[in-house]
Amino acid sequence: MYAVVKTGGKQYKVAVGEKLKVEQIPADIDSQIVLEEVLMVADGDQVTVGTPRIAGATVTATVVAHGRGEKIRIFKMRRRKHYQKHQGHRQNYTEIRIDAIAK
Fold it and tell me: What is the pLDDT of residues 20-58, one digit of tens each?
């Protein structure tokens, strides 16, 4: 059984017991969160697709950790203009573990 959920403006295919890193969620570590934007649920050959969401379907997850991703280096340059700009960015994330998928 798996589901497709939307959180942080992105869509993720999730299954029970799986860990994934999503955009930062303001929740404490070891707390339960409920993802209510479920777009699709598949159980074997039975597939339910929402328009755009499935009413009443939820995915329950536990917050495992918070962290920051790899550093992305940004470099801008205008040739012949003596302009260079260096910048870096580290995106915050929340690591969650999927506990249950309810239709």
Answer: 999 999 999 999 999 999 999 999 999 999 999 999 999
Entry pTM: 0.86
| Of residues 38, 69, 77, the one with CA closest to residue 55 | 38
Please give the tally of structural domains in the chain: 1
User: What is d(CA 66, CA 54) in angstroms, rounded to the nearest whole number?
Assistant: 29
Are 50 and 40 spatial neighbours (Cβ–Cβ below 8 Å)?
A: yes
Domain that holds residue 70: 2-102
> Which tokens hold the place of 61?
């997850």
Tokens read off for 47: 């597939």
Name the residue among 2, 37, 44 with its Cα closest to residue 22.
Answer: 37
Query: How do beta strands 58-68 and 92-102 pair?
Result: antiparallel
pLDDT of residue 103: 87
Q: Which residues touch 99 (CB under 8 Å, ≥6 apart)?
A: 16, 32, 60, 61, 62
